[in-house]
């Protein structure tokens, strides 16, 4: 168990399942545990989805808030609790109103659920709290999937930093397959062209030898 949910299982079919599988595979390549990439509280903060719903979705169970207004209120409340001022305090209604370009009365009505938000309201609030577009309105599964995709991008960057440049060349350009196919070409002229191209690629990943630092001149 990890923060209330078991090891990610067959998350509901579709994009979320694919993202869970990719993140799991990348985590394994980097030697990370499931708790490092599937922490329900971190994913909740990143997606706006309540932790218990994150856990359920990761386990492949149907979960989430279908009502747009209710989701908006959940996400808005999470933003106010987790995106704090530099002094650690919450933003006031007036500060949110000023930053989002609306009146204090409008901000209060949105926070209390007395007024349904427009897309303009959502965009302004998202910009104020510096979260991505759709944070306040996306369905729970879609919001979690977006958060996992951002996790995937971070893991891919870490993987890229660990891969030898030559190995990355072999992976990205399929050099092994190209070399095999080149051997099937009908003439030496064609094979020489491929060899010349491969040489250029290999040259691009050669480590740069450090130049000898100049010796100080004697006076």
TrEMBL record:
Entry-linked InterPro entries: Cro/C1-type_HTH, Lambda_DNA-bd_dom_sf
Instruction: Indicate the segments forming the HTH cro/C1-type domain, all copies.
Output: 89-136
A molecular-function term among this protein's GO annotations: DNA binding
Give the source's domain of life in one word: Bacteria
User: Matching Pfam families, A to Z?
Assistant: HTH_3
Q: What is this protein called?
A: Transcriptional regulator
